[in-house]
Structures are given as C-alpha cells and as structure tokens.
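Chapter review: from sequence to fold.
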Amino acid sequence: MFESVTQASSVDPSTKSGAAQAKLNEDLNQFLNLLVTQLKNQDPLDPMDANEFTSQLVQFASVEQQIYQNANLEKLLNVEQTSQIANMVDFIGHTIEATGTSFHLENDSAEFTYEFGTKPNSASINIINSSGLTVYSGDAVNETGKQSFKWDGKNQSGIQQPDGTYTAVVTGKDREGNLMNVTQTVFGRVTGAGAEEGIVSLFMNDIKTGMDKVLGTRETKSTPTP
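The token string follows.
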C-alpha cells in the first residue's frame, strides 16, 4: 500500500528498527481492518469523511519512512563499529594501561597503579580474587604522585595464586580517619576486541574495558622460557 513496502522488507527484524517495523505493521493491519468494517457499515446518506482516514494513512506512511531511515542509520553505525574493531586488532597482544581496579594475573605477574590527590596519613592495598576472598594485604605508599605496584601472585603465606581475574582495592585515610579519593589504573595484555550496544571495547581475558578508559599501550614483554 505504501511506496516503502520494498524498503520495509529490507529492515533487519533483529534490530530496533525491525521491532518498530513489526509493531507498525500490526497497528496498520488493525487500522485497515477497522476501516474496512466502518466502510461496509457506513450510512450511505452520511458517508465517512475521507479526509480523516487519508490523513491517518499518511501518518502511517510517514512513520514507516522514518523507520526505514533509522534502519539505514543503524547499518551505518554497524559498519563504523566493524571498522573500529578492525583498527583495534592492532592492540591484540599488546599491553594497555586503563583506568579501573580489575586486572588479570598472567604468568604469575600483574601490575596496577594508584594515586592520591593529597598525602594520606595511612594507606593499604588489598587484592581480592573472583570469589571475593582477600588473597593479599599490604601497605601502600602514603605519598602523592602516581605509584606502581607489581604483584607476583603470592598470598600472605607465600602460596602462588592461580592466573585469573583479581581486584585491587587501594585505601587511603587522612589524619581524621576519613577515606580519601584515589585514582587507579591497571595493566593487561589485550586478547580481543568487540562491540556491544554501540560501545567498542577491548578485552584483557575476562576483563572488558571501553576505549575511552585506555590511557596508553606498550609492547608486551615476553615471558622467558624455563
């Protein structure tokens, strides 16, 4: 009925535009069925105003055209995301620094940084595994400026922890015992890239980080073969 019928057929039903198109088709069918019923039962001496239902049909056509335009925009965004992911392939295998607290222990080695805006009275580091258990506790440097911490993966008893995802919790307190703001970053080897809901991200094993959180990249140091 509309000029955009062939256009609508090209809308991917799995997209938001496809869902909107399906809802529009349902509403249009209901409207046409109601219109046909009204035309069959109208009073010949007092016929329906053609301008009213013509205007409604024009509105349906306008909405359908907008859906088609949105579908084209979604396709362009998908192409752009694919292009971004292709460009991000160069990150794979390299080590990045990103804002965050979660990191991946790999080959018994991990590194993260922390920075206090002002000098804390006391500071500590706690490393928590994926089960929520604290596997390491120690003092942090109670100074201003960016501080780096390298962890060999051993717990308080010197027992080596398995490779996997961990979280670094750095805490600083002032003289009154109040918690202080701290900025943290983590380092990790990029193992993949992807896009979800329009957000392009890099993966450090199970850890996903958006490109807006990446601060830098460097060559991954190879682990010597024993």
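Two observations follow directly from the output. The chain is about 30% helix and 30% strand. The helical segments are 5-8, 16-40, 50-88.
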